[in-house]
Give the backbone structure.
Amino acid sequence: MRVIFFAKDRTFKASSTTFPLLVLIFAAICVAQTRVGVAAPTFTLRDQYDKALQLSDLRGSLVVLVDADRTGNQFNGAWVKPLRTRYNTPQLQQIRIVQIAHLSSVPGFLHNYVKGKFISKDSAHPNGPVLLDWEGIVAKAYGFHDEVSNIYLIDRDGILRFTASGKGTTTDLDPLIQLLDKIIARPTNPPNSI
């Protein structure tokens, strides 16, 4: 089998032995995402109340980003509720859970309408903040799977430590909880200590 690629005045021929390698290289380029163990890309997004949040402002906290599209949103609670229940003690309230709505498929003329859907009509029970990602900034930087929740754990130093996507089953949650427990158990170095 011979495959021919054309790219601006150049022709590349690939044999059946090199074709799989080219496919892998192409896939790696298309799915450019941050790897675990490197600095998490920073971003600034606004929530439904127009309050801006910059990821770098959360430095010093453990941050769990929960990013989902309209379909994947149904699984966010399966991830978030167990984390809030497990880590709801004063000494463990160092975990910040940040929910993000992946809205890049929403046309511009519908932004205000969709934004309004995130605002509670009941002032006694307002919705918590949800960052509105109209351009898919987080999805592009961290990698994203449609129709499920996407989870990214960033440590106190701003390093991406974990990524997952799924429906928040016990099998999905266990690796995240184990890693969080391990990180929390480590003593933190106060500023200016070496």
User: Anything to note?
Assistant: The mean pLDDT is 85.
